[in-house]
Design brief:
Layout (H helix, E strand, L loop, with lengths): L11 H9 L10 H5 L5 H4 L20 H7 L12 E4 L6 H9 L4 E7 L5 H18 L2 E7 L6 H5 L2 H5 L3 E7 L3 H4 L2 H5 L2 E4 L5 H13 L8 E3 L1 H11 L3 H30 L4 H10 L16 E3 L1 H8 L11 H15 L3 H13 L4 H16 L5 H16 L4 H14 L5 H14 L61 H16 L2
Length: 508
């Protein structure tokens, strides 16, 4: 099979051999396995078919453009292959999809990087593609990585080949093509948006890499804590997750070797006679002392992933007690005006991979519940922060959240509006407030005035200061005060104004 992944890639025959006879964990019998590990784990685990691709199922349905491209010359239907632009964050599978497409029968695969290629390289590929099509009936798939780095002239050089289907362009970009790709090229291609991989996607990929012969071939076992840590720190990036797994496995094997060397040194003095006796009868080749596989694979624990990534695991379970405990401490710190503690819990949630939209929602609730009318601008800041996080995402969204948290934690506090509502709800549930005063009832429909609706209603704007003396609550709730403003912040002024308003309205 053609090596599409670089030096050291495992071919299909080699993979079958590895599956049939897993290598021992240490010793010369590792030589075959070690030789296959020269490529990074992320390269070795690159899918060989669309069925192995993790995530992006919205793009991989039957009959989809990517399915048609991957089918190659065997694609059914009258439609020819379409050029595509793959747009998505790093590690979501853009390069992987291109390599899977390259395996389609009747295809010639050419890969260029916009970082190093120029117009001359593009034109050479176009000439060769035209020759391959006319003489050998082969379609050339041109994979162009980082296409947003091509300037307008370089992108224009692609147009004749894409227009006439000399090549099928598969371009990858992490930037919005609407701003980084010229319009003529966009109109001749399909724009496919790749989504960040979910935690379940990353978890399944890591477990597959541990067991697969192309990966770690069952030589290691991941503890649940280590798996969770790797998933959290991957940020939806498959390449980052596999690189971290490979590094953590290296740390685990290093610890095992250190323990064995320590044990060998301590036993050297007491085993001299035994070693001498063994040397007379052991005809095995040198270095086979550790050729027998151990009883179990090496366990990769949380401590190994922490050392490999130089990042401590945040004790946080998004579906358990830690989720609710940290969120509770976060809100109570804001309510208690401890801005430093509030920022700590904010950082703790975000570093653990908490959904920033969840954090933003809690901030909006806190602004209304705990700050209230003591600082009416706090709710405006909170809502703006929630919208901004939705708009710009992470990691920049954390800056906006920090500003909102500082505003709320340092603002004067009042729950008077919230408590006033609770009192009103309690009266409604107790059955108070039966009838609406006749002058407040709707008088717009025919016959309403004959029923007395709206009679004697005073239009507030016709009264001095825009306030009319008039009964608004039901008869059994006249004179009942629900909202009791505090003397904190803006409510100090509201309290004085409210006292004057109630006297005018109630005619006191």
């Amino acid at each position: 099979m053609e090596d599409l992944f670089g030096a050291g890639a495992v071919d299909d025959d080699e993979s079958e051999d590895l599956r049939a006879s897993p290598p021992s964990l240490r010793g010369p019998s590792d030589a075959h396995w070690i030789a296959s590990q020269r490529s990074p784990l992320a390269v070795r685990m690159r899918p060989r078919s669309l069925d192995e691709v993790v995530g992006q199922q919205h793009l991989l349905g039957q009959g989809s453009p990517l399915r048609q491209l991957a089918a190659g010359a065997e694609a059914a239907g009258p439609a020819g292959p379409s050029s595509v632009i793959l747009w998505g964050p790093p590690g979501t599978g853009k390069t992987t999809l291109a390599h899977v497409i390259a395996r389609g029968p009747g295809r010639k695969f050419v890969e260029l990087s916009a970082i190093t290629a120029g117009v001359k390289d593009v034109r050479r590929v176009m000439d060769e593609a035209l020759t391959a099509r006319d003489l050998y009936k082969k379609t050339t798939v041109l994979f162009l990585d980082e296409i947003h780095r091509f300037n307008k002239a370089q992108q224009d050089a692609l147009l004749p080949g894409v227009e006439n289907r000399w090549v099928v362009l598969v371009a990858a970009t992490t930037e919005n093509p609407s701003f980084s790709v010229v319009s003529p090229l966009l109109s001749r291609s399909l724009l496919l948006t790749l989504k960040p991989l979910t935690d379940d996607d990353i978890s399944g990929l890591l477990q597959r890499a541990v067991a697969d012969a192309r990966g770690l071939a069952g030589r290691v076992e991941l503890s649940p804590e280590a798996l969770d840590h790797l998933v959290r720190l991957s940020g939806g990036d498959a390449r980052r997750a596999l690189t971290a797994l490979e590094a953590a496995a290296g740390v685990a094997f290093g610890d095992l070797a250190a323990v064995e060397n320590s044990d060998a040194g301590s036993d050297a003095g007491s085993d001299t006679s035994v070693q001498a006796e063994d040397s007379d009868t052991n005809d095995a080749e040198p270095g086979l002392a550790h050729s027998n596989p151990p009883e179990a694979p090496v366990l990769v624990e949380l401590r190994h992933t922490e050392r490999a990534l130089d990042a401590a695991a945040v004790r946080y379970d998004r579906a358990g007690d830690q989720h609710y405990d940290v969120a509770s401490a976060f809100i109570k710190s804001i309510r208690g005006s401890d801005v430093d503690a509030a920022l700590h819990y904010l950082a703790r949630m975000l570093e653990a991979g908490e959904d920033p939209r969840f954090v933003a929602r809690r901030i909006v609730i806190s602004a209304a519940e705990d700050i209230g009318m003591a600082d009416p601008t706090a709710l405006q800041t909170a809502v703006a922060a929630a919208q901004a996080v939705q708009l710009i995402g992470m990691p920049e969204g954390r800056i906006v959240l920090a500003e909102a948290v500082v505003h709320l934690a340092t603002a004067p506090k009042s729950n008077a509006a919230y408590m006033g509502l609770n009192k009103a709800v309690a009266d409604v549930r107790a059955g108070f407030g039966g009838g609406i005063p006749m002058h407040l009832r709707d008088a717009h429909y025919p016959g309403a005035k004959q029923l007395g609706h709206g009679k004697s209603y005073k239009y507030a704007h016709d009264e001095p200061h825009g306030v009319a003396t008039q009964q608004y609550p039901p008869d059994d709730l006249v004179g009942k005060d629900y909202y009791e403003p505090t003397n904190n912040g803006a409510e100090r002024d509201i309290a004085a104004r409210l006292e004057r308003l109630r006297k005018i309205v109630r005619g006191q």
